[in-house]
Design brief:
alpha/beta, eleven-stranded mixed sheet, three-stranded antiparallel sheet, 16 helices, 21 strands, 26% helix, globular
Length: 656
């Protein structure tokens, strides 16, 4: 029996799932001559435990000279999970991709395996040592990718529990990577057996068509790369390779939407004021004026209506194209301090949490930051993951997860709406009478734009900032990336897992679905923009550098703090001393200093285990505590204004 819609909506805070789809073709680089003739099968026989595993794999790539990476994802019609109702996901959107995510996990099934001797989450450094039993190699340079190893948490069945390698630094775009596993053991300390398919490739005894198809590629690419790293062919228990998506293939559509939308509105965006409210500044209010308006933004979806299936509209060149304008709600708040000063003030954009809305910018916590920063605060909803999208997300879970693509397509539109809102604040709204003094002095300084995102507003916000043409400084409160790593580590996912568990009889299918979602998340969340968080602009339209303040909560049960560490490494952030804990790959320094920074706050909660997060009342955990912390608010406001990181705690930040 399917769960009721109301029950499913209750678990939505962590619905980010999708699944599968296919179109057969030869594996890129895997054709090894006459023995491999004939159509490629839908399932990769290398692992043998699951059709998709090991994932991601070049088995599911086809050569494509028109793709920037030179390959195209090529899932077969029978490749991807089918639920108990017989519904198999449509491959079309997945097969548009020209490679796999730069921050996606690597999945395999080695029955009985344990990770006691591997680079676990608290021992990432082991993955860079010669003795590491797992390795991820850049096939071109031979460089190792730091990672941790864990077992999927969806089952206790040792035969169906996926082994996962999770990168903690982004891989390059459009690059081939090789994965090698050796010396892994079971619970008794005995070596786990190599899957039969891989053993045949390793030992040169393959006779299966889809194995012989790959033999030459393994002999020429996979095994030599590992041997160059000191890993002998005969000691391998499993190995495979894959190609990451190109930068153009991943980000080209959303950057095209940004440029097209900003060119469309120019300096003349249209809007309508819908309400005005004056605050009691004399009575201690922080906000002196609130203006609600409707802003016209180019629409790139088949429909903007919340709760409806929507897809990006593609033009003849394959890029998203606008079908007109849509009016979106927006709120602008002017602090009393700005009204009193009567001078232009910098701009501060707010990104709300999961299935929230722009109204969350009117919380006392956010108003405190804006007031201390002396900034005009503005916000729109995150189309795709705002409150009015929740019901449709519930239907996706209950019916056909293929429609997950509709959610990420809507997130593309949500980013556009945020960028157009910023452009309007810098242009037409400077002249809006309600945003000027009685003496007709503008209250907006259009030359300075900053950003504050919390939770979802940080997960998406890192990407938003990285692609923004205006924002060069941001606070990401309780951030994390990538989504596919965060979801199974979050307690709000527990009820959702229960639904998935009723829809898919094989726990490995659930792991595969989560892995596949990252292919769609990438252009919209920080995980897909990791290379562009600091001084490496995504293109010549953005600022040459971006400074980020990352504020995490140890023991966060909603957005795991390990995801914040991943962002910190990519952004070149410095951990603020005195420390609550060391973070691998993140240097530390005493304040004051300038540049990107990580503040870890300890509210007395234990970090959840890597594979078994506790199911607790999230509101009772530390997730929301940094947002309400006076110390974090003071640091955020100072950083947004000056770019300087200062001491706000008496010792390590562990507020009572």
């Amino acid at each position: 029996m399917r769960p009721s819609l109301s029950a499913v909506v209750c678990v939505l805070p962590l619905w980010m799932l999708a699944a599968c789809g296919n179109a057969p073709g030869d594996k890129a680089g895997g054709d090894s001559g006459p023995a491999a003739e004939g159509a490629r099968g839908d399932c990769n026989p290398v692992d043998g435990g699951h059709c998709l595993f090991p994932f991601p794999s070049s088995f599911f790539l086809a050569d494509d000279d028109t793709a920037p990476s030179g390959v195209r994802v090529d899932f077969g019609q029978g490749s991807l999970p089918t639920n108990i109702d017989g519904v198999q996901m449509d491959p079309a959107e997945w097969n548009r991709k020209d490679g796999f995510p730069i921050m996606g996990g690597m999945f395999a099934l080695l029955p009985g395996v344990v990770v006691d001797n591997a680079a676990v989450v608290d021992d990432i450094g082991l993955s860079m040592e010669d003795s590491s039993p797992t390795v991820i190699l850049d096939a071109e340079t031979g460089e190792r990718v730091p990672h941790w190893v864990e077992l999927e948490r969806f089952t206790d069945d040792p035969d169906r529990r996926a082994l996962i390698l999770r990168p903690v630094a982004p891989m390059d775009f459009g690059r081939r990577y090789v994965v090698g596993i050796r010396g892994m053991v079971d619970g008794t300390g005995s070596p786990v057996a190599a899957p039969a398919g891989f053993a045949a490739l390793r030992d040169g005894t393959a006779t299966d068509g889809d194995l012989t198809r790959q033999q030459g590629h393994y002999d020429d690419v996979v095994f030599p790369a590992l041997e160059s790293a000191g890993i002998a062919r005969d000691e391998l228990q499993l190995a495979w390779d894959f190609v990451t998506t190109s930068q153009e293939g991943s980000l080209g559509p959303i950057l095209h939407m940004r440029d097209d939308a900003l060119a469309t509105v120019g300096d003349s965006a249209t809007y309508r004021v819908t309400s005005q409210q004056e605050g009691n500044c004399a009575g201690g209010a922080r906000i002196g004026r609130t203006v609600e308006l409707e802003l016209d933004v180019p629409l790139y979806l088949t429909t903007w209506a919340p709760g409806a299936e929507a897809r990006l509209v593609h033009g003849g060149d394959g890029m998203p194209e606008s079908s007109g304008l849509v009016g979106i709600p927006m709120v602008v708040q002017v602090p009393c301090a700005v009204l009193d000063a009567g001078q232009p003030a910098p701009l501060l954009q707010f990104g709300h949490g999961l299935f929230g809305n722009r109204g969350h910018s009117q919380s006392s916590s956010m108003q405190a930051v804006a007031a201390q920063a002396g900034a005009v605060l503005y916000a729109v909803d995150w189309t795709g993951m705002k409150d009015r999208d929740a019901a449709f997300a519930a239907l996706i879970m209950s019916n056909d997860p293929t429609d997950f693509v509709s959610m990420t397509d809507r997130l593309h539109q949500g980013h556009v709406e945020g960028w157009v809102a910023t452009r309007a604040m810098q242009t037409v709204l400077v002249s809006e009478p309600l945003l000027r003094t009685d003496a007709d002095t503008p209250l907006i300084d259009p030359t300075t734009v900053t950003y504050f995102g919390t939770s979802l507003g940080s997960i998406l916000g890192g990407a938003h900032v990285a692609m923004s043409t205006e924002i060069s400084r941001a606070v990401l409160n309780v951030p994390g990336a990538p989504f596919s790593m965060l979801l199974p580590r979050s307690s709000p996912f527990e009820p959702f897992f229960s639904i998935l568990n009723t829809k898919y009889s094989d726990p490995a299918d659930i792991s595969a679905i989560l892995a596949l979602t990252q292919m769609m998340w990438d252009p919209t969340e920080t995980g897909g923009l990791m290379h562009f968080l600091s001084d490496n602009p995504v293109d010549d339209k953005v600022a040459s550098s971006r400074d980020l303040l990352l504020v995490t909560a140890i023991g966060d049960l909603s957005v795991n703090s390990r995801g914040g560490h991943i962002i910190a490494r990519a952004a070149g952030a410095t951990n603020m001393e005195p420390l609550n804990r060391d973070v691998w790959g993140v240097p530390s320094a005493a304040q004051p200093f300038s540049g990107s920074a990580l503040l870890e706050m300890d509210f007395g909660y234990e970090e959840p285990g890597p594979t078994n997060p506790e199911t607790v009342d999230v509101e009772g955990g530390p997730h929301n505590m940094p947002f309400g912390s006076p110390q974090a608010q003071a640091l955020s406001a100072h950083f947004l204004v000056t770019g300087e990181v200062i001491s706000v705690c008496d010792g390590p930040c562990d507020p009572d």
